[in-house]
Design goal:
The complex is a heterodimer of chains A (162) and B (496).
Chain A (H helix, E strand, L loop, with lengths): L1 E6 L2 E7 L5 E3 L2 E3 L1 E7 L2 E6 L2 E10 L2 E5 L2 E9 H6 L11 E4 L4 E6 L6 E2 L4 E7 L2 E6 L4 E6 L6 E2 L4 E6 L1
Antiparallel strand pairs in A: 1-2, 1-9, 2-3, 3-4, 5-6, 6-7, 7-8, 8-9, 10-17, 11-13, 11-16, 12-15, 13-14, 15-17
Chain B lengths: L5 E4 L3 H14 L2 E7 L6 H5 L2 E6 L10 H10 L4 E3 L9 H9 L3 E2 L4 H8 L1 H10 L14 H11 L3 E5 L9 E3 L5 H16 L4 E5 L5 E9 L5 E13 L2 E7 L6 H18 L3 E9 L5 E7 L6 H8 L3 H9 L16 E8 L1 E2 L5 E2 L2 E2 L2 E3 L6 E5 L6 E2 L6 E9 L2 H14 L1 E3 L5 H7 L3 H4 L7 H5 L10 H15 L11 H14 L1
Parallel strand pairs in B: 1-2, 1-4, 2-3, 4-5
Antiparallel strand pairs in B: 6-7, 6-8, 9-10, 9-12, 10-11, 11-14, 12-13, 14-21, 15-16, 17-20, 18-22, 19-21
Helix pairs in contact in B: 4-5
Classes of the chains: A mainly beta (162), B alpha+beta (496).
């Protein structure tokens, strides 16, 4: 089985042949991975000890001996499908409420062009006003919630298309 | 005053737990209160007794003073400790407690009123001969704020006259930002403190936020215990505090101590208090406000002085004299506190709610962790995002920082994004490490210019766990080692 893992800005090819031998980026590695608890693993790689915790699953975020990193995994089938499902940044972006709260204000309208980092909306939660910013530039193709609405965590607020 | 035998703790989270601990040591019975969101909370479980006080929103529970005092009376408490935040600086609550015949662990109502209203505190400090930041009295409306800002000169800080903790404050850099800031600050101040009055103060750039801990008893004794540099903040919320302040000379420390004591004396202060100052690059200090409660960051003063500030608060509240004089106060070594909050530093410190799925606490020499976390503990949206305080002590700042660096990397909090990555990077950042920082530090240093890079082996290990985790969305059965997980991964991927 072959996988491609994206960790922050880095890509790794992880392969395991039917005998169980593990190759990472074409290098055979002696790996011992043990699951200590549901979200905690200890991995030794040719003797080097690394502890890995799963911080969140969706999106996948890992804690790696004190550092935190976002991870994405694609298997052979998904790799074969290529760019169709895994964009190279040129994808539609759904802006969702990171937590439940009150959508105090919307700073954009449908059809607006926004730059990366532009303030899209203000969400009041935990007694603080939080600015939601555009993760990338794009056009506001849809606004799903009106200003003043109470929203659940994960609720779709608006959609940006490149 | 009578001895405290049973105390109601009008708070939640780590501070309620911290107060319970000292009470246990002193043989004082503890009564906790909790909202619907906190049924399984640690403070509920550690207290001797616990009573529900209402729904999750603070207004209907931890801010419902009458309900809380009623629990105290009904359960035969003789004192109330308010912790910090919530009702801790609410003079009406202190009056309610006193009227019910209970001792309030904090200054008397009149002192709370005089110092809690910030413009009145400024007048009092000025009369006591302490320099204050240029500013206005309470403002009636936006035009009044505009006029005051013009007089003082931009940038100004728009601040709520009531409340504390930096909530509702806005930096206003020019006239065009005033209208929006006025609306936002009025709203936040009103919802957080129930008092919407605002005033403006000159905003000093490149200043340090240095505060001085004082203690006063009912016999006229007042001492200062040392400073805390709290300049590492974003949106006026502190992230890191340390003592001694890296830029505080013995002369400045003595001056801040004397100023804080002068204000306390003029106000007739009793119990623990903190005078906040801004200190500019030339060591000039101006008084900002007095916090009439225990501070979040009090543990660094405890580690440096060897005192238990909550125990001292209780002694003072039952009428005892302070058991030491100013000359006997010793400060040793250096201490630093890192606030672990449920905020995502990679997304502008956006607060997050959810559930802590895994928590590993650091330990070892010089490390103290004040928290109310456990695996499975909910992080409700209704309250402050503070999850834990990691406090490290060392005989020198260098050792304290080395301990903090290793302790941060030992800590795991999974399930919600936290401020830990900010701390891990800041502790090794050269300006911070050498003590060269001011209140603009976070804005100028975060996010860091280069993203974090895992070393090759760490990346390989992470990559392997990423693949194995993807295959284990369903709970694990039986075998828990990596080899069987690989097989599961392969099987699931064949079916996908």
């Amino acid at each position: 089985m072959r996988y491609e893992v994206t960790l922050g800005g880095r890509r790794l090819r992880v392969e395991r042949d039917p005998s169980g031998a593990l190759t990472v980026d074409d290098r055979v590695r002696a790996v011992d991975a043990t699951q200590i608890a549901r979200d905690l693993w200890t991995v030794t790689l040719d003797g080097r000890s690394v502890e890995v915790a799963v911080l969140t699953r969706d999106p996948l975020r890992l804690w790696v001996s004190g550092d935190e990193v976002a991870a994405e995994v694609a298997n052979e089938r998904e790799l074969a499908l290529g760019g169709a499902t895994r964009g190279t940044g040129a994808a539609r972006q759904e802006i969702r409420a990171p937590m439940p709260g009150l959508l105090k204000a919307l700073h954009v309208r449908e059809g607006d062009r926004v730059e990366r980092g532009a303030s899209l909306a203000t969400l009041e939660a935990m007694k603080m006003e939080n600015e939601l910013r555009a993760p990338d530039g794009g056009t506001v193709s849809r606004i799903a919630v009106a200003a003043g609405a109470k929203v659940e965590g994960g609720a779709l607020l608006l959609v940006l298309t490149p | 005053m009578k001895r405290i035998r049973r105390i109601l703790i009008a708070n939640r989270g780590e501070i309620a737990v911290r107060i319970i601990r000292t009470c246990r040591e002193l043989g004082i019975a503890t009564v906790a209160v909790y909202s619907d969101a906190d049924r399984g909370a640690l403070h509920v479980r550690l207290a001797d007794e616990a009573y529900p006080i209402g729904p999750a929103p603070a207004r209907e529970s931890y801010l419902a003073g009458e309900r809380i005092v009623a629990v105290g009376t009904r359960t035969g408490c003789d004192a109330v400790h308010p912790g910090y935040g919530f009702l801790s600086e609410n003079a009406d609550f202190a009056a309610l407690v006193a009227d019910a015949g209970l001792a309030f662990v904090g200054p008397p109502t009149a002192v709370q009123r005089a110092l809690g209203e910030k413009t009145s505190a400024r007048r009092l400090a000025k009369a006591a001969g302490v320099a204050i930041a240029e500013g206005s009295d309470a403002l009636a409306d936006e035009p009044a704020a505009r006029a005051a800002a013009e007089r003082i000169g931009y940038p100004v800080l728009l601040k709520p006259a009531g409340g504390g903790g930096g909530k509702g404050m806005r930096i206003v850099r020019g006239p065009d930002e005033l209208a929006l800031a006025w609306r936002g600050a009025t709203g936040e101040a009103g919802s957080a403190f129930g008092v919407a009055a605002l005033f403006v103060e000159r905003y000093l750039e490149h200043a340090r936020h240095v505060e001085m801990q004082i203690f006063a008893d009912t016999h006229g004794n007042i001492v200062w215990l040392g400073e805390r540099d709290c300049s590492i903040q974003r949106r006026q919320q502190k992230l890191v505090e340390e003592t001694p302040g890296p830029a505080v000379s013995d002369e400045l420390r003595a001056r801040l101590g004397a100023s804080a004591v002068a204000i306390a004396r003029a106000a007739g202060y009793v119990n623990a208090g903190t005078a906040e100052f801004l200190v500019d690059q030339d060591g000039r200090a101006v008084f900002l406000e007095m916090n009439t409660r225990l501070q979040v960051e009090h543990p660094i003063t405890e580690l440096a002085t060897g005192l238990d500030l909550v125990a001292l608060q209780l002694r003072v509240a039952q009428g005892e004299a302070l058991p030491f004089t100013q000359d006997a106060v010793e400060r040793r070594g250096a201490a630093i506190e890192l606030r672990i909050t449920a905020e995502d530093p990679s997304a502008g410190f956006l607060p997050s709610a959810g559930r802590v799925s895994l928590f590993r606490e650091p330990a070892g020499p010089g490390v103290r962790v004040d928290h109310a976390l456990f695996a499975g503990s909910p992080v409700p949206t209704e309250y402050d995002p503070l999850l834990a305080k990691l406090v490290c002590w060392g005989p020198t700042r260098e050792v304290a920082l080395a301990r903090a660096r290793r302790a941060v990397r030992e800590t795991i909090v999974a399930g919600v994004p936290t401020s830990l990555p900010f701390h891990a990077r800041t502790l090794v950042e050269p300006d911070f490490a050498s003590g060269r920082y001011d209140t603009g530090y976070v804005a100028s240093h975060w996010p860091p210019p280069a993203p974090l890079e895992l070393d090759d082996d760490a990346a390989v290990a992470a990559g392997i766990v990423a693949v194995l985790t993807r295959a284990s969305r369903a709970p694990a059965h039986g075998e828990r080692n990596g080899q069987s997980r690989w097989d599961t991964a392969a099987r699931e991927d064949a079916l996908r």
